[in-house]
Amino acid sequence: MERGKMAEAESLETAAEHERILREIESTDTACIGPTLRSVYDGEEHGRFMEKLETRIRNHDREIEKMCNFHYQGFVDSITELLKVRGEAQKLKNQVTDTNRKLQHEGKELVIAMEELKQCRLQQRNISATVDKLMLCLPVLEMYSKLRDQMKTKRHYPALKTLEHLEHTYLPQVSHYRFCKVMVDNIPKLREEIKDVSMSDLKDFLESIRKHSDKIGETAMKQAQQQRNLDNIVLQQPRIGSKRKSKKDAYTIFDTEIESTSPKSEQDSGILDVEDEEDDEEVPGAQDLVDFSPVYRCLHIYSVLGARETFENYYRKQRRKQARLVLQPPSNMHETLDGYRKYFNQIVGFFVVEDHILHTTQGLVNRAYIDELWEMALSKTIAALRTHSSYCSDPNLVLDLKNLIVLFADTLQVYGFPVNQLFDMLLEIRDQYSETLLKKWAGIFRNILDSDNYSPIPVTSEEMYKKVVGQFPFQDTELEKQPFPKKFPFSEFVPKVYNQIKEFIYACLKFSEDLHLSSTEVDDMIRKSTNLLLTRTLSNSLQNVIKRKNIGLTELVQIIINTTHLEKSCKYLEEFITNITNVLPETVHTTKLYGTTTFKDARHAAEEEIYTNLNQKIDQFLQLADYDWMTGDLGNKASDYLVDLIAFLRSTFAVFTHLPGKVAQTACMSACKHLATSLMQLLLEAEVRQLTLGALQQFNLDVRECEQFARSGPVPGFQEDTLQLAFIDLRQLLDLFIQWDWSTYLADYGQPNCKYLRVNPVTALTLLEKISREMKDTSRKNNMFAQFRKNERDKQKLIDTVAKQLRGLITSHHS
């Protein structure tokens, strides 16, 4: 029973579902019925659904049939009325056709007349429109014709203005015509043509100013020189401060703006022809030489065309290239001043042009660009000057170069360029100038010293005396009182050297002019350079003369006298420098002159050379000595060579009268000591194996001659017997052997008051052995005389005994 209830419930649910699906099929669009039908087929009761569907279709068919039966009579009546209307419509159509035929026939002539009127009106309208269009086109054609004429006459800036009017004012009114389109297409080409032509003019201008930049710079530097001369005249004193021409004055020559449409602006030349001016005529302004219209014209054209930046970049690039070419110095620039002058003229000309462009155009170049170019130019110029000036060995050329650099700096400073580095570089060139001066004066001093006769200057009149005193500061009351003729103590090289030192100081002073240096700096520079001249150049020249092989004692003596007077003149050189620099020597940090030291060193070198020269002369005489050490004859006079030597010494020391006493005394003492030492060496020579007492007696005569010379006082100032002490060693040695006073020597040896204090046992032993050898040799030769052998043997024993004792003294002394 429960199963029956459950089946009945399921049947009701299925029937309700089928009913819903049927309603959905009736109300749903056909395109969306697929899912509904699918739900039917997905179930298991599709057979029952089909039965219900067919039942529903039959119900609808019955409803349709009922509705058709209800409206059928009305439909029949409507068809009947429509057939009646068709006949009436056919009649109306026929009437309208007849009426149209009649109207067409009657209006044919009117239509022809109206057609003719229409054509006339159309022609009239076309003519009027054509006239109007021609009135619009004629100004365009006239402007185009004007444009072509301006292009032919190279009036490019007006042509550009005409092109602008044509493009923006006239062509838009007639833009639909074919010829206007041709013009519009041609406008960019015309603009490019104008740009190209104006650029060509600019290139010609740049090339022209590159070729003529030296002329522009030369003119600008002449202006600066004239202004400086004028400042000097106004101030009535040397120009020390920095007097500069104002920027306003520099531009009053050329400050009128060039009109772009003026005939001058259409000229393509960059440099105007200007004849060379005489020195006494006014120099034309640097800007008068240059026609800047090509630059202005090209700048305006490119500005109008919207390509100003392109133009500026091109102009700056080309000028940078030209700057590098200008700053490249020729390889032989250092050979002549004209090479430097042309180099500076080109640089000045370049920057004069750029400075004018800076102040007469708006933004074509700016201060940063100019400063960049100037920094590059300054570094390259200074490097070139350092390199090329180092090759210069002529001080006059270096001085001219310095003046040219100062003028170059002054000229550029007028235009506002900083030039401090140039003046700093001039201080470097100053050192080089000093070196070239020193080399030049080395040659001058060498010529003076080589050509001097090293004799006192003779004067025969008051005029000659004053001339020498005017050249050299010398005062001697005794010499002034002497009658003419008389002699100065110094030779001609003293006033010549003194005057050349002054000339050197003047040359140093010339370089310091216009360097904006203080008086203290100028004074310091002059003193340092003069010190180098004295301590290096003059000192070397004097030393070379003193060390010459063929220098004589007379020349050496005169050099000592000359350097003494030059040393005294140093204070006058100090005063001379003070007078020209106005800086007192007492000023703090003032450099002192080292001339005193220089002349003292030269004098000491000459003194040493005198001592050496005297000793060499003595050695030459001693080489003539020819002693017979084996002679038995007793001579009665000194050797000839020694007599000649003493005569030479007497004559030499007579020349020393003008020398300082100490120098003469030292030379005399040195000569006597050297002579005594050389004689001692002769006596003790190892080659002399034997000698006789007779030879010793002859040697004693020579020593006595030397002592006689020492006692005669060849040079004043010695105390009594002081000079004889040079021969004391020889004298005691000879007295010991000649007197044969060995007992005294051996007994008193080592005592402070010993008679033979200066006799060395080694020396005595050496000489005794030589005498002993000679006696032994003589004994062998004379052995036939028996009566002599005993005395000789006794003497030989004595000699052996003395020699033994001497050896004992030597041994004890060493121990």
TrEMBL record:
Residues 82-109 form a coiled coil. GO terms for biological process: Golgi to plasma membrane transport; intracellular protein transport; vesicle tethering involved in exocytosis. Keywords: Coiled coil, Exocytosis, Transport. This is Exocyst complex component. Component of the exocyst complex involved in the docking of exocytic vesicles with fusion sites on the plasma membrane. Residues 421-770 form the Exocyst complex subunit EXOC6/Sec15 C-terminal domain. One of its GO terms (cellular component) is exocyst. It comes from Neomonachus schauinslandi (Hawaiian monk seal). Residues 52-221 form the Exocyst complex component EXOC6/Sec15 N-terminal domain. Belongs to the SEC15 family. Residues 257-280 are annotated as: Disordered. The keyword Metal-binding does not apply. It holds the Pfam family Sec15_C. The keyword Chloroplast does not apply. The gene is EXOC6B.
